[in-house]
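Propose amino acids for all 401 sites.
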Protein backbone atom coordinates (compact mmCIF):
# COMPACT_ATOMS: atom_id res chain seq x y z
CA UNK A 1 0.00 0.00 0.00
CA UNK A 2 1.22 3.53 -0.81
CA UNK A 3 0.36 6.75 1.12
CA UNK A 4 1.37 10.34 0.22
CA UNK A 5 2.36 13.15 2.64
CA UNK A 6 4.04 16.57 2.52
CA UNK A 7 6.61 15.45 5.10
CA UNK A 8 7.60 12.13 6.66
CA UNK A 9 9.41 12.25 10.00
CA UNK A 10 11.33 9.22 11.29
CA UNK A 11 11.54 9.12 15.12
CA UNK A 12 9.27 10.71 17.77
CA UNK A 13 11.86 12.06 20.26
CA UNK A 14 12.18 15.82 20.81
CA UNK A 15 13.68 16.32 17.32
CA UNK A 16 10.98 14.44 15.42
CA UNK A 17 8.13 15.42 17.72
CA UNK A 18 8.80 19.16 17.51
CA UNK A 19 9.44 19.13 13.75
CA UNK A 20 6.11 17.34 13.21
CA UNK A 21 4.28 19.74 15.54
CA UNK A 22 5.63 22.88 13.82
CA UNK A 23 4.88 21.54 10.34
CA UNK A 24 1.31 20.58 11.32
CA UNK A 25 0.83 24.10 12.72
CA UNK A 26 1.94 25.45 9.34
CA UNK A 27 -0.76 23.37 7.62
CA UNK A 28 1.33 20.52 6.19
CA UNK A 29 0.23 16.88 5.98
CA UNK A 30 2.71 14.98 8.15
CA UNK A 31 3.35 11.30 8.92
CA UNK A 32 5.58 10.30 11.86
CA UNK A 33 7.16 6.84 12.11
CA UNK A 34 8.20 5.37 15.48
CA UNK A 35 9.64 1.91 16.12
CA UNK A 36 9.43 2.02 19.91
CA UNK A 37 7.81 4.30 22.54
CA UNK A 38 6.36 7.65 21.48
CA UNK A 39 8.50 10.53 22.83
CA UNK A 40 11.92 8.85 22.44
CA UNK A 41 14.70 8.85 25.04
CA UNK A 42 13.85 12.29 26.43
CA UNK A 43 10.30 11.56 27.54
CA UNK A 44 10.59 7.87 28.39
CA UNK A 45 14.05 7.37 29.87
CA UNK A 46 15.99 10.65 29.97
CA UNK A 47 15.14 14.29 30.68
CA UNK A 48 11.60 13.85 31.98
CA UNK A 49 11.99 10.97 34.50
CA UNK A 50 15.29 12.51 35.60
CA UNK A 51 13.70 15.90 36.20
CA UNK A 52 10.90 14.34 38.24
CA UNK A 53 13.36 12.44 40.46
CA UNK A 54 15.76 15.42 40.67
CA UNK A 55 12.99 17.61 42.08
CA UNK A 56 12.30 15.04 44.82
CA UNK A 57 16.02 14.71 45.52
CA UNK A 58 16.66 18.43 45.80
CA UNK A 59 13.63 18.93 48.08
CA UNK A 60 14.83 16.16 50.42
CA UNK A 61 18.32 17.62 50.57
CA UNK A 62 17.09 21.16 51.24
CA UNK A 63 14.90 19.84 54.05
CA UNK A 64 17.92 18.09 55.54
CA UNK A 65 19.97 21.32 55.36
CA UNK A 66 17.24 23.22 57.22
CA UNK A 67 16.09 20.63 59.79
CA UNK A 68 19.18 18.46 60.08
CA UNK A 69 16.92 15.44 59.56
CA UNK A 70 17.32 12.93 56.75
CA UNK A 71 14.07 12.17 54.98
CA UNK A 72 13.77 8.47 54.16
CA UNK A 73 12.89 8.47 50.46
CA UNK A 74 11.49 5.37 48.80
CA UNK A 75 13.35 4.83 45.50
CA UNK A 76 11.07 2.05 44.19
CA UNK A 77 7.95 4.08 44.98
CA UNK A 78 9.38 7.25 43.39
CA UNK A 79 10.44 5.42 40.21
CA UNK A 80 7.05 3.75 39.91
CA UNK A 81 5.25 7.14 40.32
CA UNK A 82 7.62 8.63 37.75
CA UNK A 83 6.73 5.90 35.26
CA UNK A 84 2.99 6.54 35.82
CA UNK A 85 3.60 10.22 35.07
CA UNK A 86 5.66 9.40 31.98
CA UNK A 87 2.91 7.11 30.61
CA UNK A 88 0.33 9.86 31.07
CA UNK A 89 2.59 12.42 29.36
CA UNK A 90 3.27 9.99 26.50
CA UNK A 91 -0.46 9.52 25.90
CA UNK A 92 -1.08 13.29 26.12
CA UNK A 93 1.72 14.06 23.65
CA UNK A 94 0.50 11.47 21.17
CA UNK A 95 -3.17 12.56 21.44
CA UNK A 96 -2.17 16.23 21.14
CA UNK A 97 -0.42 15.68 17.80
CA UNK A 98 -3.13 13.33 16.47
CA UNK A 99 -5.70 16.07 17.17
CA UNK A 100 -3.55 18.41 15.06
CA UNK A 101 -3.86 15.88 12.22
CA UNK A 102 -0.66 13.83 12.63
CA UNK A 103 -0.62 10.34 11.14
CA UNK A 104 1.49 8.00 13.34
CA UNK A 105 2.82 4.73 11.95
CA UNK A 106 4.46 2.29 14.40
CA UNK A 107 7.33 0.23 12.95
CA UNK A 108 10.90 0.60 11.69
CA UNK A 109 11.30 3.11 8.86
CA UNK A 110 13.74 2.42 6.02
CA UNK A 111 14.67 5.00 3.42
CA UNK A 112 14.11 3.60 -0.07
CA UNK A 113 14.95 6.81 -1.93
CA UNK A 114 14.83 10.58 -1.22
CA UNK A 115 11.03 10.59 -1.25
CA UNK A 116 10.07 7.12 0.01
CA UNK A 117 10.20 5.51 3.46
CA UNK A 118 9.14 1.87 3.82
CA UNK A 119 7.62 0.47 7.04
CA UNK A 120 7.04 -3.25 6.52
CA UNK A 121 4.80 -3.52 3.45
CA UNK A 122 3.67 0.11 3.75
CA UNK A 123 5.21 2.61 1.29
CA UNK A 124 5.13 6.20 2.54
CA UNK A 125 5.89 8.90 -0.02
CA UNK A 126 6.85 12.40 1.19
CA UNK A 127 7.91 15.60 -0.59
CA UNK A 128 10.42 16.03 2.26
CA UNK A 129 11.80 13.61 4.81
CA UNK A 130 13.16 14.43 8.28
CA UNK A 131 15.37 11.90 10.07
CA UNK A 132 15.31 12.05 13.89
CA UNK A 133 16.61 8.63 14.96
CA UNK A 134 18.30 9.74 18.21
CA UNK A 135 21.25 8.18 20.01
CA UNK A 136 22.29 5.18 22.11
CA UNK A 137 24.93 4.53 24.80
CA UNK A 138 28.47 4.04 23.44
CA UNK A 139 29.43 1.32 25.92
CA UNK A 140 27.57 -1.82 27.07
CA UNK A 141 26.36 -2.14 30.67
CA UNK A 142 23.75 -0.72 33.02
CA UNK A 143 22.96 2.83 31.85
CA UNK A 144 21.33 5.84 33.59
CA UNK A 145 18.18 5.15 31.50
CA UNK A 146 17.91 1.66 33.08
CA UNK A 147 18.05 3.19 36.56
CA UNK A 148 15.67 6.08 35.87
CA UNK A 149 13.02 3.80 34.35
CA UNK A 150 13.29 1.12 37.07
CA UNK A 151 14.52 -1.53 34.59
CA UNK A 152 17.40 -2.02 37.03
CA UNK A 153 17.14 -1.30 40.77
CA UNK A 154 20.52 -0.27 42.18
CA UNK A 155 21.80 -2.24 45.14
CA UNK A 156 24.53 -1.72 47.72
CA UNK A 157 27.47 0.46 46.81
CA UNK A 158 27.03 2.23 43.46
CA UNK A 159 29.85 3.33 41.16
CA UNK A 160 28.96 5.62 38.26
CA UNK A 161 31.52 5.56 35.45
CA UNK A 162 31.62 8.92 33.66
CA UNK A 163 31.98 12.60 34.42
CA UNK A 164 29.45 14.15 32.01
CA UNK A 165 26.02 15.65 32.74
CA UNK A 166 24.17 12.31 33.10
CA UNK A 167 26.77 10.92 35.54
CA UNK A 168 26.78 14.09 37.70
CA UNK A 169 22.98 14.29 37.71
CA UNK A 170 22.38 10.64 38.55
CA UNK A 171 25.05 10.62 41.30
CA UNK A 172 23.25 13.49 43.02
CA UNK A 173 19.77 11.92 42.70
CA UNK A 174 20.86 8.52 44.00
CA UNK A 175 22.78 10.04 46.91
CA UNK A 176 19.75 12.10 47.97
CA UNK A 177 17.71 8.88 47.89
CA UNK A 178 20.10 7.39 50.45
CA UNK A 179 22.38 5.23 48.28
CA UNK A 180 26.12 4.97 48.79
CA UNK A 181 27.49 6.56 45.61
CA UNK A 182 30.91 6.94 44.01
CA UNK A 183 31.71 8.56 40.67
CA UNK A 184 34.69 7.52 38.56
CA UNK A 185 36.24 10.59 36.99
CA UNK A 186 39.15 10.36 34.51
CA UNK A 187 39.67 14.09 33.90
CA UNK A 188 37.33 16.44 35.84
CA UNK A 189 33.57 16.73 36.37
CA UNK A 190 31.81 18.07 33.23
CA UNK A 191 35.09 18.19 31.26
CA UNK A 192 33.22 17.32 28.04
CA UNK A 193 31.68 20.81 28.08
CA UNK A 194 34.53 23.28 27.37
CA UNK A 195 32.19 26.20 28.20
CA UNK A 196 32.37 25.17 31.88
CA UNK A 197 35.58 26.41 33.59
CA UNK A 198 37.72 24.17 35.78
CA UNK A 199 36.86 26.27 38.84
CA UNK A 200 33.17 25.30 38.45
CA UNK A 201 34.06 21.60 38.22
CA UNK A 202 36.08 21.99 41.42
CA UNK A 203 33.15 23.74 43.17
CA UNK A 204 30.82 20.90 42.14
CA UNK A 205 33.34 18.37 43.43
CA UNK A 206 33.41 20.15 46.82
CA UNK A 207 29.59 19.97 46.92
CA UNK A 208 29.77 16.23 46.12
CA UNK A 209 32.20 15.80 48.99
CA UNK A 210 29.91 17.70 51.36
CA UNK A 211 26.93 15.45 50.63
CA UNK A 212 29.03 12.28 50.66
CA UNK A 213 29.48 11.40 46.97
CA UNK A 214 32.95 9.91 46.61
CA UNK A 215 34.89 11.15 43.55
CA UNK A 216 37.46 8.50 42.56
CA UNK A 217 40.11 8.28 39.85
CA UNK A 218 40.40 4.46 39.77
CA UNK A 219 37.71 1.79 39.52
CA UNK A 220 36.72 0.71 43.05
CA UNK A 221 34.66 -2.23 44.37
CA UNK A 222 30.93 -1.71 43.85
CA UNK A 223 27.72 -3.75 43.85
CA UNK A 224 26.12 -1.79 41.01
CA UNK A 225 28.22 -0.23 38.24
CA UNK A 226 26.44 2.32 36.06
CA UNK A 227 27.99 3.21 32.71
CA UNK A 228 27.45 6.88 31.82
CA UNK A 229 30.39 7.32 29.46
CA UNK A 230 28.60 8.99 26.55
CA UNK A 231 26.30 8.31 23.62
CA UNK A 232 26.62 7.85 19.86
CA UNK A 233 24.20 8.47 16.98
CA UNK A 234 21.58 5.73 16.56
CA UNK A 235 21.88 5.82 12.82
CA UNK A 236 21.89 2.54 11.04
CA UNK A 237 23.33 2.67 7.53
CA UNK A 238 21.33 -0.39 6.38
CA UNK A 239 18.07 1.51 7.01
CA UNK A 240 19.40 4.72 5.44
CA UNK A 241 21.92 3.56 2.83
CA UNK A 242 22.20 6.77 0.77
CA UNK A 243 22.75 9.18 3.65
CA UNK A 244 26.36 10.31 4.10
CA UNK A 245 27.84 9.95 7.59
CA UNK A 246 30.85 11.74 9.05
CA UNK A 247 33.82 9.67 10.29
CA UNK A 248 32.55 10.13 13.90
CA UNK A 249 29.19 8.52 13.02
CA UNK A 250 27.06 11.70 12.95
CA UNK A 251 24.99 12.43 9.83
CA UNK A 252 26.62 14.93 7.48
CA UNK A 253 24.44 18.03 7.04
CA UNK A 254 24.86 21.54 5.68
CA UNK A 255 24.26 24.65 7.81
CA UNK A 256 20.51 24.36 7.06
CA UNK A 257 20.52 20.76 8.40
CA UNK A 258 19.92 19.23 4.96
CA UNK A 259 21.70 15.92 4.29
CA UNK A 260 23.50 14.98 1.07
CA UNK A 261 20.09 13.96 -0.35
CA UNK A 262 18.10 17.07 -1.41
CA UNK A 263 14.88 17.36 0.62
CA UNK A 264 16.07 14.97 3.33
CA UNK A 265 16.88 16.75 6.63
CA UNK A 266 18.36 15.49 9.93
CA UNK A 267 17.59 16.73 13.46
CA UNK A 268 18.22 15.63 17.07
CA UNK A 269 21.14 13.56 18.33
CA UNK A 270 22.18 12.24 14.88
CA UNK A 271 23.61 15.75 14.31
CA UNK A 272 25.98 17.32 16.89
CA UNK A 273 25.70 18.63 19.54
CA UNK A 274 23.52 16.11 21.36
CA UNK A 275 20.81 17.13 23.83
CA UNK A 276 17.07 17.70 23.79
CA UNK A 277 17.41 21.50 23.93
CA UNK A 278 19.50 21.35 20.74
CA UNK A 279 17.01 18.88 19.20
CA UNK A 280 14.17 21.39 19.66
CA UNK A 281 16.22 24.17 18.07
CA UNK A 282 17.22 21.95 15.12
CA UNK A 283 13.51 21.11 14.66
CA UNK A 284 12.65 24.82 14.56
CA UNK A 285 15.34 25.41 11.93
CA UNK A 286 14.23 22.49 9.74
CA UNK A 287 10.50 23.31 9.99
CA UNK A 288 11.34 26.86 8.88
CA UNK A 289 13.56 25.72 6.01
CA UNK A 290 10.94 23.26 4.74
CA UNK A 291 8.13 25.80 4.74
CA UNK A 292 9.96 29.08 3.96
CA UNK A 293 12.87 27.85 1.82
CA UNK A 294 16.42 27.19 3.03
CA UNK A 295 17.15 30.43 4.87
CA UNK A 296 17.61 29.63 8.57
CA UNK A 297 20.90 28.19 9.87
CA UNK A 298 21.44 26.19 13.06
CA UNK A 299 23.37 28.09 15.73
CA UNK A 300 24.17 25.84 18.76
CA UNK A 301 25.29 28.76 20.94
CA UNK A 302 21.65 30.02 20.96
CA UNK A 303 20.70 27.01 23.08
CA UNK A 304 21.19 27.11 26.87
CA UNK A 305 22.44 23.96 28.58
CA UNK A 306 21.68 23.29 32.27
CA UNK A 307 22.99 20.42 34.39
CA UNK A 308 20.97 19.73 37.56
CA UNK A 309 23.24 18.17 40.17
CA UNK A 310 24.52 19.15 43.65
CA UNK A 311 24.45 22.63 42.10
CA UNK A 312 22.83 23.76 38.91
CA UNK A 313 25.47 24.50 36.29
CA UNK A 314 24.53 26.12 33.00
CA UNK A 315 25.66 28.23 30.08
CA UNK A 316 24.52 29.94 26.90
CA UNK A 317 26.26 31.91 24.16
CA UNK A 318 29.65 31.69 22.50
CA UNK A 319 32.72 32.08 24.78
CA UNK A 320 35.02 32.36 21.74
CA UNK A 321 33.48 35.69 20.66
CA UNK A 322 34.01 37.28 24.08
CA UNK A 323 36.42 40.24 24.46
CA UNK A 324 36.04 40.81 28.21
CA UNK A 325 34.84 38.60 31.10
CA UNK A 326 33.34 39.58 34.44
CA UNK A 327 32.73 37.37 37.50
CA UNK A 328 29.79 38.04 39.79
CA UNK A 329 28.80 36.42 43.05
CA UNK A 330 25.09 35.59 43.06
CA UNK A 331 24.92 36.46 46.77
CA UNK A 332 25.51 40.10 45.78
CA UNK A 333 21.96 40.28 44.42
CA UNK A 334 20.57 43.12 46.60
CA UNK A 335 16.96 42.51 45.56
CA UNK A 336 16.29 39.11 47.08
CA UNK A 337 17.33 36.61 49.68
CA UNK A 338 17.17 33.55 47.42
CA UNK A 339 20.91 32.92 47.37
CA UNK A 340 21.40 31.14 50.65
CA UNK A 341 24.55 29.55 49.26
CA UNK A 342 26.37 31.85 46.86
CA UNK A 343 26.62 30.99 43.21
CA UNK A 344 29.03 32.39 40.64
CA UNK A 345 28.24 33.91 37.26
CA UNK A 346 30.83 34.40 34.53
CA UNK A 347 29.61 36.87 31.91
CA UNK A 348 31.37 37.57 28.64
CA UNK A 349 30.98 40.83 26.71
CA UNK A 350 31.89 42.10 23.24
CA UNK A 351 34.31 45.00 22.76
CA UNK A 352 31.31 47.37 22.86
CA UNK A 353 29.85 45.85 26.07
CA UNK A 354 27.17 43.60 24.52
CA UNK A 355 26.61 40.45 26.66
CA UNK A 356 27.54 37.39 24.57
CA UNK A 357 28.07 34.52 26.99
CA UNK A 358 26.98 33.44 30.43
CA UNK A 359 28.09 30.47 32.49
CA UNK A 360 26.97 29.95 36.07
CA UNK A 361 27.02 27.58 39.01
CA UNK A 362 24.65 27.80 41.99
CA UNK A 363 20.97 27.47 42.80
CA UNK A 364 18.46 28.88 40.30
CA UNK A 365 21.00 28.96 37.45
CA UNK A 366 18.41 27.65 34.97
CA UNK A 367 16.30 30.76 35.62
CA UNK A 368 19.29 33.09 35.14
CA UNK A 369 20.55 31.28 32.01
CA UNK A 370 17.11 31.22 30.37
CA UNK A 371 16.43 34.91 31.00
CA UNK A 372 19.91 35.77 29.67
CA UNK A 373 19.29 33.60 26.61
CA UNK A 374 15.98 35.26 25.96
CA UNK A 375 17.71 38.69 26.02
CA UNK A 376 20.25 37.34 23.49
CA UNK A 377 17.40 36.08 21.24
CA UNK A 378 18.22 32.44 22.09
CA UNK A 379 16.01 29.53 23.13
CA UNK A 380 15.41 27.85 26.53
CA UNK A 381 17.01 24.95 28.35
CA UNK A 382 15.14 21.65 28.57
CA UNK A 383 13.34 20.73 30.73
CA UNK A 384 12.39 24.16 32.12
CA UNK A 385 9.32 26.23 32.88
CA UNK A 386 10.74 28.95 30.61
CA UNK A 387 10.05 26.70 27.59
CA UNK A 388 6.38 27.43 28.10
CA UNK A 389 6.99 31.03 26.96
CA UNK A 390 8.12 29.78 23.55
CA UNK A 391 5.07 27.51 23.33
CA UNK A 392 2.72 30.39 24.21
CA UNK A 393 4.21 32.62 21.52
CA UNK A 394 4.17 29.79 18.99
CA UNK A 395 0.36 29.91 19.27
CA UNK A 396 0.23 33.61 18.38
CA UNK A 397 3.08 34.00 15.92
CA UNK A 398 4.93 30.96 14.68
CA UNK A 399 8.52 30.79 15.92
CA UNK A 400 11.13 33.48 16.53
CA UNK A 401 11.90 33.77 12.80
C1 LIG B 1 19.56 9.88 31.30
C2 LIG B 1 19.46 10.99 30.31
C3 LIG B 1 19.12 12.27 30.73
C4 LIG B 1 19.01 13.31 29.81
N1 LIG B 1 18.69 14.55 30.26
C5 LIG B 1 18.64 15.59 29.39
C6 LIG B 1 18.29 16.89 29.84
O1 LIG B 1 18.00 17.13 31.00
N2 LIG B 1 18.26 17.90 28.92
C7 LIG B 1 18.56 17.68 27.60
O2 LIG B 1 18.53 18.65 26.82
N3 LIG B 1 18.88 16.44 27.15
C8 LIG B 1 18.91 15.41 28.00
N4 LIG B 1 19.21 14.15 27.55
C9 LIG B 1 19.45 13.94 26.12
C10 LIG B 1 18.12 13.81 25.34
O3 LIG B 1 17.34 12.77 25.89
C11 LIG B 1 18.42 13.53 23.89
O4 LIG B 1 19.31 14.51 23.42
C12 LIG B 1 17.15 13.60 23.06
O5 LIG B 1 16.23 12.62 23.46
C13 LIG B 1 17.49 13.39 21.59
O6 LIG B 1 16.33 13.55 20.85
P1 LIG B 1 16.17 12.86 19.43
O7 LIG B 1 14.86 13.35 18.89
O8 LIG B 1 17.38 13.04 18.63
O9 LIG B 1 16.12 11.29 19.73
P2 LIG B 1 15.44 10.31 20.76
O10 LIG B 1 14.79 11.01 21.87
O11 LIG B 1 16.47 9.29 21.08
O12 LIG B 1 14.32 9.62 19.89
C14 LIG B 1 14.61 8.93 18.69
C15 LIG B 1 13.43 8.05 18.37
O13 LIG B 1 13.58 7.56 17.04
C16 LIG B 1 13.13 6.21 16.99
N5 LIG B 1 13.77 5.58 15.82
C17 LIG B 1 15.10 5.44 15.56
N6 LIG B 1 15.29 4.85 14.35
C18 LIG B 1 14.05 4.62 13.84
C19 LIG B 1 13.59 4.04 12.64
N7 LIG B 1 14.44 3.59 11.68
N8 LIG B 1 12.25 3.94 12.44
C20 LIG B 1 11.36 4.40 13.38
N9 LIG B 1 11.75 4.97 14.54
C21 LIG B 1 13.08 5.09 14.77
C22 LIG B 1 13.58 5.63 18.33
O14 LIG B 1 12.81 4.51 18.67
C23 LIG B 1 13.34 6.82 19.28
O15 LIG B 1 12.06 6.77 19.88
C24 LIG B 1 19.27 13.07 28.43
C25 LIG B 1 19.59 11.78 27.99
C26 LIG B 1 19.68 10.75 28.92
C27 LIG B 1 20.04 9.38 28.43
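Proposal:
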Amino acid sequence: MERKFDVIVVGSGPGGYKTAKLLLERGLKVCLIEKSLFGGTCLNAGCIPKDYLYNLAVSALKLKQVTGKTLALDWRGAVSKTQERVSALRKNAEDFLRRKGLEIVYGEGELVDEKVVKVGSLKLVGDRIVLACGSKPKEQGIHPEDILTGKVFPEGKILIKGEGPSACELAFILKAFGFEVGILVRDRLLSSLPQIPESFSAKLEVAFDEIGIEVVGEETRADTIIVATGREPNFCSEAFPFIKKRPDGFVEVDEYLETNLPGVYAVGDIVPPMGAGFAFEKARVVAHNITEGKSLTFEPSNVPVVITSAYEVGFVGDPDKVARTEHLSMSLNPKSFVNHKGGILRIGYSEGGKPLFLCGIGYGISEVVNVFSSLMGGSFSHPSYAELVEEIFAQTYVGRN
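The chain has a mean pLDDT of 93. DSSP finds ten helices and 18 strands in the chain.
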